Hints:
Elements: H1 2-14, H2 37-42, E1 61-64, E2 68-71, E3 74-77, E4 80-83, E5 86-89, H3 100-107, E6 115-119, H4 129-137, E7 141-145, H5 147-159, E8 164-168, E9 178-179, H6 180-184
Amino acid sequence: MAAAAVAFRSVSRAQPASRCRHVKLLWAPRRGHRLSPADDELYQRTHVSLLKQDLPHAMYIDSYSSRGFVVNGNRVLGPCALLPHSVVQWNVGSHQDITEESFSLFWMLEPKIEIVVVGTGNKTERLHSQVLRAMRQRGIAVEVQDTPNACATFNFLCHEGRVTGAALIPPPGETSLMNLGQAAE
């Protein structure tokens, strides 16, 4: 019997874990770097306060149709020229009517316009080379695109804060307004 007791003691010393009782905890300990689902709900809500508009006087094209454009909430019928702080009717019927004289309002302005975005209707059309050369000589870049892409490019350049102008011809054949915000989505 004494030999059994000595053997039992040596076995119990070799395996101390067998003597410990396992206690089941009712909650798991939290670590500082891990969030529980309850904590995560606090971080899924976002609140944004708009203190000021980035560019309060910038021109933006809201939508376009075969009849014209909506610029900063104002409807403009027919072809138009967008300048940094104003919109004017542009007396052209198609891309073939664009001349140096029809672009003259862009180089008369101060501050000088950096780039003019030209919308030529449903598809991109080539402008007369002498018109492009005259604009280049005056230090104004010209970007010719179809009208839907020209509207988006103009909005992008204005958002960047560039001094931008646009010469836009409405795309023929579309009768309903196309909202540029919906087109981007």
